[in-house]
Amino acid sequence: MSWSKLFKIVGVLAFISYQTNAQMISKQGLLQFQSNFVEAQQQLDARLADTSSDANVALELNLQKAQLYMLYQRADLLQPLLSQIQQQIFAQKDEAVHSQWHLLNGIQFYLVGKYAQADESLSLSLELLKSNNRHLENAYLENFILMYQAVNRVYLQQYEAALAELTAVYKRAEKNNWSIIQARSLVFMGEVNYALKNYEQALEYYHNAYNTYPENALIYRAETLMFEAQMVNIVGERSVAFTQLEQAMDVFIEQQDDTRLANAYLLKSYFYSKVPDDFQALEWIAKSVKKREQLGNAIEIANAYVHYSSQLGTNGQIPLALEYAKKAADLAEVHEDISGQWDSYGNYADLLNQAGDYQQAFHYMQLSERALLKKARLDITSQTATLNAEFNLSREQLKSEFLDKQGQLLEERNALLNEQLLMEQRQQRHQNWVLMVLSAALVFFLIMCAVIYRLYIKNKLLASRDPLTSLHNRRSVLVLGEQVLHSSDRYQFAVSVLMLDIDSFKAVNDRFGHETGDRVIQYVADICLAAIRKPDYVGRVGGEEFLLVLPHTDEQAALLLAKRLCEQVVNADKKSIEQVKKVTVSIGIATKNIHSEQPYNSDPHKDLNQLIREADAALYIAKEKGRNQVQVYHTDLDLKDHAVNLDASTPNMLRTLPD
């Protein structure tokens, strides 16, 4: 967000009249731009070429060009232009012109994340404007500067002061019918509430701002619609958020607003990551990264790199994710955006942890914690200063009222009261310091606990999950299966075990490569996971072999599930494995059910190993009979002609149940 958001692309730049520089930003002039960025820039360049011999006209056009760059948030173009015209600006004795240069420079600092320098430039601009002794003429511009001073303080963690100043600017704008400043104040109040995680309140501010803008303020309405979509995605319907974002993007494309379009790409990637649709999320964040790299704003590039590396990590591309996460951390280090540093360092630490580089992960997690503590310290300091100011104001009001009522006769008592108040103030300061120290210690302790717990959970998960499919690994599913068998023995319910094997998997690896083979395994794993119930378990126990443990499931129910799995593997969408046109599986079933009338199922002494051996034997028969089928382990000797003897040590036979 920047001062450029206060301009509208309406009017043709070729017809802008020459006017005093300080008056260019006025309630009449804010909507004077019309044409998109490229056309407007070309028009200004053409006029500069025609008037190159007239220094004053050239300076005026360069200032208009600087405002155009502000409109499109092009800090990469604005900074060199301001440096180019600086000497000409300060050669003039007009303090209003100096004020405008400092204003543009302050916004430039704000755009690149140098918030302390931005605050200094904006304060100097306001001071120069006030010394001009034309308060009524400059009222609009003064409030314009105050508004951006306030939003800049959000990034200095001065939330209360920012909100109070924005509220005051909004009231003055409403009184004077300054619709653009009125709407922008609402947008910035929404930004404050977003920073404080008051998402519903932020949504209300953005919605009111959208309705406050003039209808011809297309780019600002589109930008506000994008912010509204961001909040709707959090507290409302995601489909509505997608629609709003698409509408905003259409305007940005038409106006060739690359900066906001890059922001929209990033936001669209975030929306898809919540669907979730990791493929689309990665595609859109890649577009945002490319666009922001072209624009060259380091703080925005760092933000895009954080989201890009996080999505790459989600998609399993850890080496590339680490590369971009490192770039983001390096860029964030040189900027004043504490929240950005916290996000960048924490993201890089998380990816390093996934890659197994625990020493570096710990180092960057420490950096992330320091950034968080610094942010918390600034928040506490800001709150303490606000409380002290309110306390001092209340004290002075009390003192004034007391003196008015008591007069000279109560001077002695007033002195005692002042002494008491001074003592309370010292105590308050002492309590504030104690509170700050305790709060910082508590925050640090909680963060350390959270980090340790997070690492514990991740290590526990890694120990029990197959890294390729995220299913239970062999050890985990066997432990869970034993627990199910123990419960079955105690509560006497049926348990079925399915052994599933991908048919002709070696041929897939030989023909298409191991990467495609891995995607086939993931494809089958996803289908299995989607098909089972919450109390069921599925794990990968071999290269292309899966084990399903199904409590409260008899032979017929297990058979229905197995057939359904076979059909879904054949018929499901194979977009993720486009090269492989046909995938089939074979499944073997074994059941333990003490209530069954069949002796081969009702044996109470069956353990998990025996059930797995039986299911594996059934799977072997399914393979022998042509694959892409289900076989159920059985010991009915009358059905010998429908089965084969497995080996000399396994007298039990197999049969195929009828469809």
Oligomer: single chain
Silhouette: elongated
Describe the sheet with the most strands: 6 strands, mixed
Question: Main sheet: which strands, in order across?
Answer: 2-3-1-4-5-6
Class per helix and strand makeup: mainly alpha
Low-confidence stretches: 1-24, 27-33, 636-659
Share of helix among residues?
55-70%
Instruction: Evaluate the radius of gyration.
Output: 34 Å
End-to-end Cα distance: 65 Å
Strand fraction: 5-15%
Number of helices: 24
The average pLDDT score comes to 82
Order of helices and strands: HHHHHHHHHHHHHHHHHHHEHHEEHEHHEE
Please give the structural blueprint.
Blueprint: H1 37-50, H2 55-71, H3 75-91, H4 95-111, H5 115-130, H6 139-154, H7 159-176, H8 179-195, H9 199-212, H10 218-235, H11 238-254, H12 258-273, H13 278-295, H14 298-314, H15 318-333, H16 338-355, H17 358-406, H18 411-464, H19 474-491, E1 495-502, H20 505-512, H21 514-531, E2 537-540, E3 545-551, H22 555-571, E4 585-592, H23 599-602, H24 608-624, E5 630-633, E6 654-655
Parallel strand pairs: 4-5
Antiparallel strand pairs: 1-3, 1-4, 2-3, 5-6
